[in-house]
Amino acid sequence: MSIDKEMQDAINEQINAEIYSAYLYLSMSSWFEEKNLVGFSNWMRCQYLEETMHAMKLYNFVNERGGRVVLKPIAGPETEWDSFDGVFTQVAEHEAFVTKLINKLVAIARKLDDYASESFLMWYVDEQVEEEATADEILTRLRMIKGDNNALYTLDTELKSRIPALAVLPTILDQPIA
Ligand SMILES: [Fe+2]
Ligand SMILES: [Fe+2]
After folding, report:
1. Where are the beta strands (DSSP E) in 31-103?
2. Is 146 helix (H, G, I), strand (E, B) or coil?
3. How far is the CA of 54 from the centre of ligand 1 (A)?
4. What pLDDT digit, counting tens, does each position of 135-166 carry?
C-alpha cells in the first residue's frame, strides 16, 4: 500500500525543514570558523551532516513507500549572531521547534492509521530528545563560562572531538555500510 498523499506532502515539508536545519548549522559553522573556534565549527559541521541525514532518511522512506519526493526552495539562514550563547539559544529554540514539527507528523500518521509512518517517525521522536538535550547542555555551559576565555577554549577543544554519526553516509547514499 503506497503512502497517503497527505502523509507524503507533510514528509516533503519535513525534508525541507531538515535541509533548512542543515543550512542553518552550516551558517553557524562558518560564523565560528571566522572566529577560529575550530571545535565549535566542527560541531556545527557534524550537525550539518546529521541534519542532511535526517532529510535523506525521510527521502528514502517516501521512495520506499511508493511516494514522490518534491523538493522546495530552502530559506536563507541567519548569518550573524551577537554572542556564543546567542548561537546556542537559537539552536535550542530551533530544535524545540523541529520537535513540534515531528509531533505534528506523528499526529497525521495516527489520524490516517498509517502505522508504517508512525513507527518510522518514532526514530525522529527519540532523536529530538537527544538533539534538544545536547543543545541545552552546551547552552548551559556557555552561560556558565561567559567571559572566561580559558573555559571557552576548553569547551572548544572538547567539541573538536565530535565525529558525525556512523549512519550518515549509508543513509545519504541509501546503501549498507561496505
Ligand atoms: Fe533533524
Ligand atoms: Fe536537529
Report:
1. none
2. coil
3. 5
4. 999 999 999 998 899 999 999 999 999 999 99
